[in-house]
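**User:** Hello, beginner here. Are you able to go through the protein record under this note? It all follows right here:
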Amino acid sequence: MRNEEDGKPQFYICNCFTTDNIFLEDYKLHVRFVTEQQFRLDYHTLLGKLGCVTEQQFEDVLNKISQEVDRRRRLAVTSAERAAVIKDVYQPLHPHVYHLQESYLSPKFKQLVECCRSSSAGGEGLSDLMEEEAAPRVYRFPVFEKSFCEQLVEELEHFEQSSAPKGRPNTMNHYGILLNELGFDESFITPLREQYLHPLTSLLYPDCGGRCLDSHKAFVVKYDMNEDLDLSYHYDNAEVTLNVSLGKDFTEGNLYFGDMRQVPLSETECSEVEHKVTEGLLHRGQHMHGALPISSGQRWNLIIWMRASQERNHLCPMCNRRPTLVEGEGFADGFTKHSASLPNASCALT
Protein backbone atom coordinates (compact mmCIF):
# COMPACT_ATOMS: atom_id res chain seq x y z
CA MET A 1 0.00 0.00 0.00
CA ARG A 2 1.28 3.47 -0.81
CA ASN A 3 1.53 5.99 2.00
CA GLU A 4 2.15 9.68 2.40
CA GLU A 5 5.57 9.25 4.01
CA ASP A 6 7.32 8.16 0.80
CA GLY A 7 5.99 11.21 -1.04
CA LYS A 8 3.42 9.23 -2.99
CA PRO A 9 -0.30 9.56 -2.32
CA GLN A 10 -2.26 6.81 -0.68
CA PHE A 11 -5.23 5.79 -2.78
CA TYR A 12 -8.66 4.76 -1.56
CA ILE A 13 -11.89 3.15 -2.70
CA CYS A 14 -15.35 4.60 -2.19
CA ASN A 15 -17.53 2.76 0.30
CA CYS A 16 -20.13 2.29 -2.46
CA PHE A 17 -17.92 -0.44 -3.93
CA THR A 18 -19.64 -2.98 -1.67
CA THR A 19 -23.20 -1.78 -2.37
CA ASP A 20 -23.49 -0.24 -5.85
CA ASN A 21 -23.24 -1.43 -9.45
CA ILE A 22 -23.63 -5.13 -8.73
CA PHE A 23 -24.24 -6.82 -12.08
CA LEU A 24 -26.93 -9.50 -12.32
CA GLU A 25 -25.84 -11.37 -15.40
CA ASP A 26 -29.06 -13.37 -15.83
CA TYR A 27 -31.06 -10.15 -16.07
CA LYS A 28 -28.42 -7.81 -17.60
CA LEU A 29 -29.05 -5.39 -14.76
CA HIS A 30 -26.85 -3.36 -12.43
CA VAL A 31 -28.32 -3.02 -8.93
CA ARG A 32 -27.67 -1.41 -5.57
CA PHE A 33 -27.93 -3.56 -2.46
CA VAL A 34 -27.84 -2.13 1.07
CA THR A 35 -30.45 -4.29 2.80
CA GLU A 36 -32.85 -6.98 1.62
CA GLN A 37 -35.81 -4.73 2.43
CA GLN A 38 -34.38 -1.88 0.33
CA PHE A 39 -33.55 -4.28 -2.50
CA ARG A 40 -37.05 -5.78 -2.59
CA LEU A 41 -38.64 -2.33 -2.64
CA ASP A 42 -36.35 -1.08 -5.40
CA TYR A 43 -36.10 -4.10 -7.70
CA HIS A 44 -38.83 -6.71 -7.06
CA THR A 45 -41.19 -5.33 -9.72
CA LEU A 46 -38.43 -4.67 -12.26
CA LEU A 47 -36.91 -8.11 -11.84
CA GLY A 48 -40.37 -9.64 -12.27
CA LYS A 49 -40.67 -7.93 -15.66
CA LEU A 50 -37.26 -9.34 -16.59
CA GLY A 51 -38.26 -12.93 -15.81
CA CYS A 52 -37.53 -13.28 -12.09
CA VAL A 53 -41.03 -14.39 -11.21
CA THR A 54 -40.75 -17.03 -8.46
CA GLU A 55 -39.58 -16.60 -4.89
CA GLN A 56 -36.87 -19.21 -5.53
CA GLN A 57 -35.52 -17.15 -8.43
CA PHE A 58 -35.50 -14.08 -6.20
CA GLU A 59 -33.65 -16.04 -3.49
CA ASP A 60 -31.09 -17.10 -6.11
CA VAL A 61 -30.55 -13.43 -6.95
CA LEU A 62 -30.03 -12.60 -3.27
CA ASN A 63 -27.50 -15.44 -2.93
CA LYS A 64 -25.52 -14.21 -5.93
CA ILE A 65 -25.51 -10.68 -4.55
CA SER A 66 -24.33 -11.95 -1.17
CA GLN A 67 -21.44 -13.81 -2.81
CA GLU A 68 -20.45 -10.76 -4.85
CA VAL A 69 -20.58 -8.41 -1.84
CA ASP A 70 -18.41 -10.84 0.12
CA ARG A 71 -15.93 -11.04 -2.78
CA ARG A 72 -15.68 -7.26 -2.92
CA ARG A 73 -15.17 -6.90 0.82
CA ARG A 74 -12.28 -9.34 0.72
CA LEU A 75 -10.86 -8.14 -2.60
CA ALA A 76 -7.91 -6.05 -1.34
CA VAL A 77 -6.63 -8.88 0.83
CA THR A 78 -7.21 -11.68 -1.67
CA SER A 79 -5.67 -9.65 -4.51
CA ALA A 80 -2.52 -8.93 -2.49
CA GLU A 81 -2.31 -12.61 -1.54
CA ARG A 82 -2.62 -13.68 -5.19
CA ALA A 83 0.04 -11.18 -6.30
CA ALA A 84 2.47 -12.52 -3.68
CA VAL A 85 1.93 -16.13 -4.76
CA ILE A 86 2.25 -15.23 -8.46
CA LYS A 87 5.55 -13.46 -7.79
CA ASP A 88 6.74 -16.56 -5.93
CA VAL A 89 5.70 -19.37 -8.24
CA TYR A 90 5.07 -18.07 -11.76
CA GLN A 91 7.81 -18.22 -14.39
CA PRO A 92 7.09 -15.84 -17.30
CA LEU A 93 7.41 -17.08 -20.86
CA HIS A 94 8.43 -13.66 -22.22
CA PRO A 95 9.91 -11.64 -19.31
CA HIS A 96 10.70 -8.66 -21.56
CA VAL A 97 7.01 -7.84 -22.21
CA TYR A 98 6.66 -6.67 -18.59
CA HIS A 99 8.90 -3.66 -19.33
CA LEU A 100 7.64 -1.05 -21.77
CA GLN A 101 9.99 -0.33 -24.67
CA GLU A 102 9.49 2.15 -27.49
CA SER A 103 10.00 -0.64 -30.01
CA TYR A 104 6.68 -2.15 -28.86
CA LEU A 105 4.79 0.96 -29.94
CA SER A 106 3.41 1.68 -33.40
CA PRO A 107 5.36 4.42 -35.22
CA LYS A 108 2.06 6.17 -35.91
CA PHE A 109 1.24 6.14 -32.18
CA LYS A 110 4.65 7.64 -31.32
CA GLN A 111 4.10 10.31 -33.97
CA LEU A 112 0.67 11.04 -32.50
CA VAL A 113 2.15 11.43 -29.01
CA GLU A 114 4.86 13.77 -30.31
CA CYS A 115 2.24 15.85 -32.07
CA CYS A 116 0.32 16.20 -28.79
CA ARG A 117 3.48 17.02 -26.84
CA SER A 118 4.36 19.84 -29.22
CA SER A 119 3.92 23.27 -27.67
CA SER A 120 2.01 24.32 -30.77
CA ALA A 121 -0.36 21.37 -30.61
CA GLY A 122 -3.91 22.53 -30.55
CA GLY A 123 -5.37 19.63 -32.42
CA GLU A 124 -3.77 20.49 -35.78
CA GLY A 125 -2.53 17.42 -37.59
CA LEU A 126 -4.19 14.96 -35.22
CA SER A 127 -6.89 14.02 -37.73
CA ASP A 128 -4.20 12.60 -40.01
CA LEU A 129 -2.92 10.30 -37.24
CA MET A 130 -6.15 9.03 -35.70
CA GLU A 131 -9.80 8.66 -36.54
CA GLU A 132 -12.71 10.16 -34.63
CA GLU A 133 -15.54 7.66 -34.77
CA ALA A 134 -19.23 8.33 -35.36
CA ALA A 135 -19.61 8.11 -31.58
CA PRO A 136 -18.60 11.55 -30.27
CA ARG A 137 -15.10 11.87 -28.81
CA VAL A 138 -14.21 8.24 -29.41
CA TYR A 139 -10.82 8.02 -31.12
CA ARG A 140 -9.17 5.08 -32.88
CA PHE A 141 -5.45 4.75 -33.58
CA PRO A 142 -2.73 2.05 -33.69
CA VAL A 143 -0.97 1.56 -30.33
CA PHE A 144 1.29 -1.51 -30.52
CA GLU A 145 3.25 -3.38 -33.15
CA LYS A 146 1.64 -6.65 -34.23
CA SER A 147 4.67 -8.69 -33.10
CA PHE A 148 4.39 -7.29 -29.57
CA CYS A 149 0.66 -8.05 -29.41
CA GLU A 150 1.40 -11.65 -30.37
CA GLN A 151 4.07 -12.03 -27.68
CA LEU A 152 1.90 -10.40 -25.03
CA VAL A 153 -1.00 -12.75 -25.82
CA GLU A 154 1.43 -15.71 -25.65
CA GLU A 155 2.51 -14.53 -22.20
CA LEU A 156 -1.08 -14.12 -21.05
CA GLU A 157 -2.01 -17.58 -22.32
CA HIS A 158 1.04 -19.04 -20.59
CA PHE A 159 -0.08 -17.46 -17.32
CA GLU A 160 -3.67 -18.56 -17.84
CA GLN A 161 -2.54 -22.17 -18.27
CA SER A 162 -0.27 -22.08 -15.20
CA SER A 163 -1.20 -23.16 -11.69
CA ALA A 164 -0.80 -19.60 -10.35
CA PRO A 165 -3.94 -18.09 -8.75
CA LYS A 166 -6.10 -15.80 -10.86
CA GLY A 167 -8.74 -13.16 -10.14
CA ARG A 168 -11.50 -11.99 -12.48
CA PRO A 169 -11.21 -8.39 -13.76
CA ASN A 170 -14.72 -7.26 -12.74
CA THR A 171 -18.29 -8.48 -12.28
CA MET A 172 -19.05 -8.43 -16.00
CA ASN A 173 -16.01 -10.29 -17.39
CA HIS A 174 -15.53 -13.89 -16.26
CA TYR A 175 -12.34 -14.48 -18.22
CA GLY A 176 -9.34 -12.21 -18.02
CA ILE A 177 -6.32 -11.20 -15.97
CA LEU A 178 -5.64 -8.38 -13.50
CA LEU A 179 -2.35 -6.94 -14.72
CA ASN A 180 -1.29 -5.44 -11.38
CA GLU A 181 -1.33 -8.93 -9.85
CA LEU A 182 0.82 -10.22 -12.68
CA GLY A 183 3.40 -7.44 -12.21
CA PHE A 184 2.73 -5.16 -15.18
CA ASP A 185 1.92 -1.94 -13.31
CA GLU A 186 5.25 -0.41 -12.37
CA SER A 187 7.33 -0.93 -15.52
CA PHE A 188 4.68 -1.11 -18.23
CA ILE A 189 1.25 0.41 -17.53
CA THR A 190 2.41 3.36 -15.41
CA PRO A 191 5.03 4.61 -17.93
CA LEU A 192 2.57 4.01 -20.78
CA ARG A 193 0.01 6.20 -18.99
CA GLU A 194 2.40 8.89 -17.82
CA GLN A 195 4.71 9.23 -20.82
CA TYR A 196 2.52 8.36 -23.80
CA LEU A 197 -1.19 8.53 -22.98
CA HIS A 198 -1.06 11.68 -20.85
CA PRO A 199 -0.25 13.99 -23.82
CA LEU A 200 -3.27 12.61 -25.70
CA THR A 201 -5.74 12.74 -22.83
CA SER A 202 -4.59 16.25 -21.87
CA LEU A 203 -5.44 17.52 -25.32
CA LEU A 204 -8.57 15.46 -25.99
CA TYR A 205 -10.27 15.35 -22.57
CA PRO A 206 -9.27 18.40 -20.50
CA ASP A 207 -12.86 18.75 -19.26
CA CYS A 208 -13.02 15.33 -17.59
CA GLY A 209 -9.65 14.92 -15.90
CA GLY A 210 -7.49 14.19 -18.93
CA ARG A 211 -4.79 16.58 -17.74
CA CYS A 212 -4.41 15.11 -14.26
CA LEU A 213 -4.73 11.34 -14.55
CA ASP A 214 -2.78 9.95 -11.60
CA SER A 215 -3.78 6.29 -11.30
CA HIS A 216 -5.27 3.42 -13.25
CA LYS A 217 -6.66 -0.09 -13.21
CA ALA A 218 -5.39 -2.31 -16.04
CA PHE A 219 -6.61 -5.74 -17.02
CA VAL A 220 -7.11 -7.97 -20.03
CA VAL A 221 -10.38 -9.60 -20.99
CA LYS A 222 -10.84 -12.65 -23.17
CA TYR A 223 -13.77 -13.52 -25.42
CA ASP A 224 -14.07 -17.07 -26.70
CA MET A 225 -16.77 -19.15 -28.36
CA ASN A 226 -16.92 -21.38 -25.27
CA GLU A 227 -16.62 -18.57 -22.69
CA ASP A 228 -17.68 -14.90 -22.70
CA LEU A 229 -18.93 -13.89 -26.14
CA ASP A 230 -19.88 -10.27 -25.53
CA LEU A 231 -20.15 -7.51 -22.96
CA SER A 232 -23.36 -5.81 -21.87
CA TYR A 233 -24.00 -2.06 -22.07
CA HIS A 234 -22.15 -0.28 -19.25
CA TYR A 235 -19.86 2.58 -18.28
CA ASP A 236 -16.40 2.36 -16.71
CA ASN A 237 -15.07 3.32 -13.30
CA ALA A 238 -12.69 5.71 -15.02
CA GLU A 239 -12.31 9.25 -16.29
CA VAL A 240 -10.72 8.06 -19.55
CA THR A 241 -10.46 4.51 -20.93
CA LEU A 242 -8.09 2.97 -23.46
CA ASN A 243 -9.20 -0.34 -24.99
CA VAL A 244 -6.60 -2.08 -27.21
CA SER A 245 -7.38 -5.13 -29.33
CA LEU A 246 -4.45 -7.56 -28.90
CA GLY A 247 -5.67 -10.51 -31.00
CA LYS A 248 -5.95 -13.30 -31.79
CA ASP A 249 -8.05 -14.25 -34.81
CA PHE A 250 -11.76 -13.48 -34.47
CA THR A 251 -14.74 -12.27 -36.46
CA GLU A 252 -17.40 -9.73 -35.47
CA GLY A 253 -17.24 -8.45 -31.88
CA ASN A 254 -17.21 -4.72 -32.63
CA LEU A 255 -17.80 -2.22 -29.84
CA TYR A 256 -20.86 0.02 -29.73
CA PHE A 257 -21.31 3.38 -28.01
CA GLY A 258 -24.42 5.18 -26.85
CA ASP A 259 -24.48 8.46 -24.95
CA MET A 260 -23.11 9.53 -21.60
CA ARG A 261 -24.49 7.58 -18.63
CA GLN A 262 -26.85 10.39 -17.60
CA VAL A 263 -28.87 9.93 -20.82
CA PRO A 264 -31.61 7.23 -20.74
CA LEU A 265 -31.14 4.34 -23.17
CA SER A 266 -34.57 5.10 -24.65
CA GLU A 267 -33.19 8.47 -25.83
CA THR A 268 -29.96 7.01 -27.18
CA GLU A 269 -28.87 6.02 -30.66
CA CYS A 270 -25.88 3.65 -30.57
CA SER A 271 -22.96 3.74 -33.01
CA GLU A 272 -20.92 0.67 -33.90
CA VAL A 273 -17.12 1.01 -33.90
CA GLU A 274 -14.75 -1.41 -35.60
CA HIS A 275 -11.92 -2.66 -33.41
CA LYS A 276 -8.87 -4.05 -35.23
CA VAL A 277 -5.91 -5.89 -33.72
CA THR A 278 -3.11 -3.48 -32.57
CA GLU A 279 -5.55 -0.54 -32.46
CA GLY A 280 -6.79 1.30 -29.41
CA LEU A 281 -10.09 3.03 -28.78
CA LEU A 282 -9.84 6.03 -26.46
CA HIS A 283 -13.03 7.30 -24.85
CA ARG A 284 -14.52 8.94 -21.78
CA GLY A 285 -15.12 6.46 -18.97
CA GLN A 286 -18.71 7.63 -18.45
CA HIS A 287 -19.56 7.04 -22.11
CA MET A 288 -21.98 4.09 -22.23
CA HIS A 289 -20.74 1.22 -24.39
CA GLY A 290 -20.67 -2.54 -24.89
CA ALA A 291 -19.12 -5.27 -27.03
CA LEU A 292 -21.07 -7.23 -29.61
CA PRO A 293 -20.61 -11.02 -29.64
CA ILE A 294 -17.76 -12.57 -31.57
CA SER A 295 -18.94 -15.15 -34.12
CA SER A 296 -15.71 -17.15 -34.31
CA GLY A 297 -12.21 -17.36 -32.87
CA GLN A 298 -10.80 -15.80 -29.73
CA ARG A 299 -10.25 -12.17 -28.81
CA TRP A 300 -8.03 -10.55 -26.17
CA ASN A 301 -8.35 -6.89 -25.17
CA LEU A 302 -6.17 -4.72 -22.96
CA ILE A 303 -8.26 -2.29 -20.90
CA ILE A 304 -6.76 0.65 -19.01
CA TRP A 305 -9.14 2.60 -16.79
CA MET A 306 -7.36 5.91 -16.16
CA ARG A 307 -8.40 7.97 -13.19
CA ALA A 308 -8.03 11.55 -11.98
CA SER A 309 -8.30 11.92 -8.22
CA GLN A 310 -8.94 15.66 -8.52
CA GLU A 311 -12.11 14.86 -10.44
CA ARG A 312 -13.42 11.83 -8.57
CA ASN A 313 -12.59 13.11 -5.10
CA HIS A 314 -15.52 15.52 -5.47
CA LEU A 315 -17.99 13.06 -6.98
CA CYS A 316 -17.71 9.29 -7.15
CA PRO A 317 -18.58 8.25 -10.72
CA MET A 318 -20.12 5.00 -9.53
CA CYS A 319 -22.58 6.26 -6.89
CA ASN A 320 -22.91 9.93 -7.89
CA ARG A 321 -22.18 11.04 -4.33
CA ARG A 322 -19.20 12.56 -2.58
CA PRO A 323 -17.02 9.52 -1.87
CA THR A 324 -16.79 7.94 1.55
CA LEU A 325 -13.18 6.77 1.58
CA VAL A 326 -11.97 3.33 2.60
CA GLU A 327 -8.29 2.33 2.50
CA GLY A 328 -7.27 0.23 -0.48
CA GLU A 329 -4.23 -1.50 -1.94
CA GLY A 330 -2.05 0.08 -4.64
CA PHE A 331 -3.98 2.52 -6.79
CA ALA A 332 -7.25 1.20 -5.26
CA ASP A 333 -10.07 3.06 -7.07
CA GLY A 334 -8.13 6.26 -7.58
CA PHE A 335 -9.47 8.41 -4.72
CA THR A 336 -7.17 10.44 -2.45
CA LYS A 337 -7.70 12.69 0.55
CA HIS A 338 -6.37 15.75 -1.26
CA SER A 339 -9.71 17.04 -2.46
CA ALA A 340 -10.56 19.98 -0.22
CA SER A 341 -9.29 22.53 -2.74
CA LEU A 342 -10.57 23.09 -6.25
CA PRO A 343 -8.78 21.29 -9.09
CA ASN A 344 -5.42 22.92 -9.78
CA ALA A 345 -4.38 24.57 -13.00
CA SER A 346 -2.99 21.36 -14.48
CA CYS A 347 -6.45 19.82 -14.30
CA ALA A 348 -8.77 22.76 -14.90
CA LEU A 349 -10.01 24.00 -18.23
CA THR A 350 -8.19 27.04 -19.60
